[in-house]
Amino acid sequence: GAGVSQSPSNKVTEKGKDVELRCDPISGHTALYWYRQSLGQGLEFLIYFQGNSAPDKSGLPSDRFSAERTGGSVSTLTIQRTQQEDSAVYLCASSAAGGDYGYTFGSGTRLTVV
Amino acid sequence: AQSVTQPDIHITVSEGASLELRCNYSYGATPYLFWYVQSPGQGLQLLLKYFSGDTLVQGIKGFEAEFKRSQSSFNLRKPSVHWSDAAEYFCAVGARGNTPLVFGKGTRLSVIA
Question: Minimal CB count within 10 Å: which of A26, A31, A82, B32?
């Protein structure tokens, strides 16, 4: 597609439920990133996929968070047993291989845990 | 570890006035530096980037930034602000090889008439 697509755009869930957030990157972009944006906290790195390499999961805040990327394209971020502190905007970005990279971001998924 | 500091949480400027948003970074090698803008309810858009070479880089929407190695800074400037520039601005630092960017906490820009 022309840009990075994220769905849903908004998600309200009850505490304790699991949620799945989807990211469809730009076609041909080998790198895909998930960030979390909380009010006043900037962007917090969560996880990074590069081609067929093992993902860099160093930013995941707890084992309730996981992500996968199927076929080097679409990625799903899963949050299990959601907590109120998980409420944030989850942003996905992709970039092409090579050194001259700048991310293309999606519009994000706003997650509210009630 | 890489880090980015944006000292100003919120700045208000008058339309037509000049603007400078500050960014300081911490990184051991030559950094890749970026400025992104986020309008309300939108994703982040790349304004400009610095990898090497000329330390003054031009971006979209009339923005420019200057890399000063001695001060570990990459400040964003615009000579005349428009009301449509009101948004959140993020500075980020990275390294060669598509490793994840580290972002500052952002500076919110308000523009008044």
Answer: A26
